[in-house]
Design a protein that fits this description.
Shape: globular
Distance between the termini: 43 Å
Largest sheet: 6 strands, mixed
CATH architecture: 2-Layer Sandwich
CATH topology: Beta Polymerase, domain 2
Order of helices and strands: HEEHEEEHHEHEE
Number of helices: 5
Number of domains: 1
Strand order of the largest sheet: 3-4-5-2-1-6
Length: about 160
């Protein structure tokens, strides 16, 4: 688990991480966080943390992430915890996605454990128009807790 491929570029890792975060947000993840851990561990380049209020929501987030990254040609190497859906781990080598129910997220405080990593500004990944992952409009969370709509720029 958590061995990144020598053939994965930093740009590709970033694309995959941002796509995973956007997928989690499409399923109304609570407090999605993207951490750039490339300078602090050899395990991966990015960690994504997402929260769900229930088993059903955690599963829905996990399936959305898996489907989205599959469209990018990325298959998960390891999937842990999907049956109980209290803490689901999706390992893509260079990107590791953690989806936790609120109770587990509050208890383990994983983001605090990795507090020496760089937190990627949500504006950077929520509005990345380089991702070609769906219909023209998508919803993303505003850092202030609200919701904003962003549309893709047309190429006309």
């Amino acid at each position: 688990m958590g061995q990144k491929s020598a053939t994965t570029s930093p740009t590709e890792s970033k694309l995959v991480a941002f796509a995973a975060a956007q997928a989690a947000d499409r399923k109304k993840s609570k407090s999605t966080v993207v951490l750039d851990v490339s300078k602090v561990t050899l395990m991966a380049d990015y960690f994504i943390f997402a929260g769900g209020e229930s088993k059903a929501q955690v599963k829905a987030i996990a399936e959305e992430v898996r489907m989205t990254l599959n469209k990018l040609g990325r298959a998960d190497r390891v999937v842990e915890g999907l049956t109980e859906a209290r803490w689901v781990l999706l390992d893509y080598g260079d990107v590791i996605v953690h989806i936790l129910q609120d109770k587990e997220r509050d208890y383990y405080k994983l983001e605090q454990f990795w507090n020496h990593a760089l937190v990627v500004d949500p504006k950077e990944w929520a509005e990345d128009d380089n991702l070609d992952l769906g219909a023209g409009k998508r919803e993303s969370k505003d850092p202030g807790g609200g919701t904003k709509r962003s549309t893709r720029k047309s190429s006309k």
